[in-house]
Amino acid sequence: MCALTDRYNAKNPLPSGTRRGKAFNEDVLAKLEGLIHVMKEIGDKHNATSAQVAIAWAIAKETVPIIGVTRTSHIADAVKAAEITLTAQEIHDLEAAAKETGIVIKGDWEKPMH
């Protein structure tokens, strides 16, 4: 989810030479800009950050987001995200924006689903 936090972008990429830096390189980050814009708009409606919207979206999809917590503020962000109820329209807008990116990121450890 780090690429969806608005902390990183094509002008401020993840560290090169890292697994996340390879997966979310400058080209990928540039493709995510439209999705991040939608996330910011939704975040503004909920007084939330794009990172909180990303977590709320994962929860709305009935998945369990794995949240990297390196600061105590990350815990407060996760609690806030769990309190956000996205509307059906917001979920639709996020899904449409995500599909428009054309990006599918899977870890080396993930097996194909049959």
Question: How would you characterize the overall build of this protein?
Answer:
The chain has 114 residues and is an all-alpha fold. Helices cover 54% and strands 0% of the residues. The protein has six helices and no strands. The longest helix is centred in the middle third of the chain and has 14 residues, at 33-46.
Short structural description:
The chain is an all-alpha fold. It has six helices and no strands. 54% of the residues lie in helices and 0% in strands.
Helix content: 40-55%
Q: Mean pLDDT score, rounded?
A: 84
Secondary-structure-based class equals mainly alpha
Cα-to-Cα separation, first versus last residue: 25 Å
What composes the largest sheet? none
Supply Rg: 14 Å
* Strand composition percent: under 5%
* Number of DSSP E strands: 0
Q: Which term fits the overall shape?
A: globular
Which terms summarize this structure?
114 residues, globular, mainly alpha, 54% helix
Write the topology of this structure.
Blueprint (H helix, E strand, L loop, with lengths): L18 H5 L2 H6 L1 H14 L3 H11 L11 H11 L5 H14 L13
Helix pairs in contact: 3-4, 3-6, 4-5
